[in-house]
Amino acid sequence: MTQNRNCVPGSTWLVLAVMLSPVLCAAEEPVEGDVVLRALVDELARSMELQLEDLEKPYLIQYKVEDRTGHWLAATHGAITQADRTRRRSFSSRVRVGGYDLDNTNFVGGSRGGTRTSLPVDDDYVALRQGIWTATDRQYKGAVEALTRKRSYLEQKNIEDRPPDYTAAEPVTHLQSRAELKFDEATWRQRLEVVSGRFGKYPAIQNSEVSLVAGVVTDYTVNSEGTRLRVSDTGILLTLRADLQATDGMRLGDQRVFGGESFAELPTTEELVAAVDELCASLAELATAPILEEYTGPVLFEARAAGQVLASLLAPGLAGRPDPIGAPGRSDDSLEKKLGKRILPRTFQVQDDPTVKRVDGKLLFGWYDYDAEGVPARRVQLVADGMLETMVMSRTPTRKIQGTTGHGRNGRFGADAQATTANLFVSDEAGLEDDELKQALIEACQDEDLEFGLRITALDNVGSGYLSDPVFAYRVYVEDGREELIRGVEFRPVEVRALRRILAAGKNRHVLNYFTPGSGLGAAVVAPALLFDELELSKVEEEFDKLPILDAPATREDASAR
Questions:
Q1: Cα separation of 143 and 152, whole Å?
Q2: Residue 138: is it exposed, middle or buried by C-beta count within 10 angstroms (0-12/13-18/19+)?
Q3: Which of 112, 190, 449, 451 sits 20 to 30 Å CA-CA off 333?
């Protein structure tokens, strides 16, 4: 059971993709001054003439390029374990044949995702066009074959209310200047050595790491509708991680994540050392906490944990995604069937707004100005007075909703864009102060004749459609309001309909930055604390490894002699 307060995927490039969000800038460069953009535009014009005998030409082609420079460092016990620098220019194309109503996509047996390849990092016009031409030709041939299979399948099936496969979008032109990031590797090596060495003061810590990921990305999007985009930004992510075992062998972990667009936004060395001390102290306290065998009753999620609940249960269902033709059944996690119905208490409002960059000075991981389909992002009112009004959409319509909201995103470069929430804002017009929420928890427990209730401050992770294990949870005793830290419990299955039974919420909202499960896309939930009327938890049934026989070398008295 490992706590992950801000879920960070294993892929360094997925981490960078979150922090390197596009930003509007007034300075622009002409197409003629950018060899990459010129190669994309010129080859796109030629590719629209692709045609196999007696088969359709493309009706839409989109090209994307990610030009990235990345630096990353990692340190453990005062020593650098990883130091790398990468420059990469990735290209993907999506060729669509047929028409907006029926094309080669959204079919289980068809072409899914675009062709992905690497382009030269040198600004050689001919070499760039060569790579673009090869990938486009290959995908066009696959596209016409996929459309033939799809038409054949549809002739044999009776499919009612099939939505169009794609929707048109207004072309957008925005050419932003390339961002720059100066990285002082020597200085950051020294800082990571100092901070990572601090973990050696805590003998109980078994594994620890300090990692730094920093980079610059320039993204290009051009399509045959006329869109021409070049957006560029910098991003930095610094993570402290540690884990230990309780006396019964249960493994407990935690991390602290710091992000920004410049190195000046990161904590000082002294502040990072203090964060290590706080992290290790909280884990040591957790390791000695008693295990809760079973509980059924009211649960208060503090704002951070409430954000994890909403990111796990609510956010996935707010994305409008059609099931591909030929899929075995309808997706269960979509809330589309709940449109026009109440899914939250009547005082709740929910919006998604990718255009909000910061809240109280904190960068939101879900911020962007243009989505992966070249559509400007915009704010969407999803829930009003507890009722589900609409969903976030990409350019791929569903049976009930057509028209993009600028929420088409892809976590894996080259994959087709899908509707995904970005910055989810949740509020309760009847929100309570913190002390009032705790009293509401106690009163709810009194109504059920319970000795105590539960207050949870952090979950293990953000799941997709399920709640991960509580990590920092406390018994709140009805008699006097005192609290006791506990560990070792997990939720029994919690369905999204449990959100209708929220008893109360707080006034003060917290920013939870996270990475969406599966795709690794950056997202945020800005939400208050939530009090649920009844949830069930039980002891984690797991066999744990025994504690190490010998002390860790880094904690021995002779460790300083190295």
A1: 14
A2: middle
A3: 112
CA 244 to chain CA centroid, nearest Å: 27
DSSP label at 306? Answer: H
User: Rounded to 5 degrees, what are φ and ψ at 388?
Assistant: -75, 115
CA within 13 Å, CB half, 471: 24
Whole-model pTM: value is 0.90
Q: Output Rg (C-alpha) for the chain, integer angstroms.
A: 26
Contacts of 427 (CB under 8 A, 6+ apart): 348, 349, 350, 509, 527, 528
Domain 12-287 CATH assignment equals 3.40.50.720: no
Tokens of 252: 């407990």
What is the residue extent of each domain of the chain?
12-287, 294-539
Mean pLDDT, the chain cut into blocks of 10 residues (562 residues total): 38 41 37 87 94 88 96 97 96 96 88 79 96 93 93 90 94 95 96 97 96 96 97 94 94 91 95 98 96 96 97 96 82 86 97 96 93 97 98 96 95 87 97 96 97 96 92 96 96 95 96 90 96 96 78 65 46
Q: Is the dihedral of CA 412, 417, 422, 428 positive or negative?
A: negative
